[in-house]
Write a structure and sequence with these properties.
Helix content: 40-55%
Shape: globular
Structural class: alpha/beta
Keywords: Isomerase
GO molecular function: isomerase activity
Strand content: 15-25%
Number of domains: 1
CATH architecture: Alpha-Beta Barrel
CATH class: Alpha Beta
CATH superfamily: Divalent-metal-dependent TIM barrel enzymes
Largest sheet: 8 strands, parallel, barrel
Protein name: Sugar phosphate isomerase/epimerase
Number of strands: 10
InterPro entries: IolE/XylAMocC-like (IPR050312), Xyl_isomerase-like_sf (IPR036237), Xyl_isomerase-like_TIM-brl (IPR013022)
């Protein structure tokens, strides 16, 4: 089974969508989607107007949108203004997704590690994410919580409890093995346990310094410390039908992204 490859445009913050697509054209045989950063969409709207123009641009280039990425956490309820801004942003993302025929939007759950969350913080965030699921249902769009260190979705037990407490069918997961490996967790074990909830996957790699995170060095997808080949084999074995998005940032992002695309072509294009 061939997995579908996409790119996270969050790594191209200074570029416009048109520039990303033009850069992508020679790679089109492998890349089938763009996971769009919400600011890229807003910038497109400022320049070109309605989103049907963006939908047409992507369709003309045979690109799908597996996810739209915002930056919400729903864990800062003490700051009413910020919390309302997150609700407004989520509603805007859901509307964008509906118009662009995109199946889900990305959120985070919490802004601190799960072990540091108070029972009240945890409960409030789960309640707000349930409300978000209800809102998403109006748009026919899912909400995917990204598995991420220093969030409420940072280990298997926390992820399982979070899903149980939110208890809404629109709430899904974005699996990210590299984010789990930051805390020296076994990504494959987590994937095996939560796979039914996974709607999208992020793929990247690092050479890790577990004592000093800021010294982590990005690496191509099959050259770092995370065994991404095993993770992709597990996805294939379980007949995963979603997208896998390459996610790289910063000055070292582009060379590692290009190397990752070459590795994907060599090892997985069958």
């Amino acid at each position: 089974m061939t997995l579908k490859l996409s790119l996270c445009t969050t790594g191209f913050k200074e570029w416009d969508i048109e520039e990303i697509i033009n850069w992508l054209l020679p790679l089109q045989a492998d890349v089938k989607g763009l996971e769009l950063w919400n600011k890229h969409i807003e910038r497109f709207q400022e320049k070109h107007g309605p989103l049907d123009k963006l939908a047409k641009l992507l369709e003309n280039n045979d690109l799908q949108i597996p996810s739209i990425s915002g930056y919400t956490t729903f864990s800062k309820l003490w700051n009413q203004k910020e919390h309302q801004n997150e609700i407004n942003q989520a509603r805007k993302l859901l509307d964008m997704a509906h118009q662009l025929n995109c199946p889900l939007i990305r959120t985070f759950a919490g802004h601190i590690a799960s072990r540091n969350a108070s029972p009240e913080q945890w409960s409030e965030t789960a309640t707000e994410l349930n409300k978000l699921g209800q809102m998403a249902d109006l748009y026919g769009v899912d909400v995917a919580i990204e598995i991420h260190y220093d969030s409420f979705a940072d280990n298997l037990e926390a992820i399982q409890k979070l899903l149980e407490d939110i208890d809404h069918p629109r709430i899904k997961l974005i699996f990210d093995g590299a984010n789990l490996y930051v805390d020296q967790l076994n990504p494959k074990e987590v994937l095996e346990s939560i796979f039914p909830h996974v709607s999208h996957v992020h793929l990247k790699n690092y050479h890790y310094n577990h004592k000093e995170r800021y010294k982590n060095k990005p690496a191509p997808i099959f050259s770092g410390d995370v065994d991404n080949i095993r993770l992709l084999e597990e996805l294939r074995k379980r007949n995963y039908t979603g997208f896998v998005s390459l996610e790289y940032f910063g000055q070292e992002g582009m060379p590692n992204l290009l190397a990752s695309l070459e590795q994907w072509k060599q090892q997985l294009a069958y």
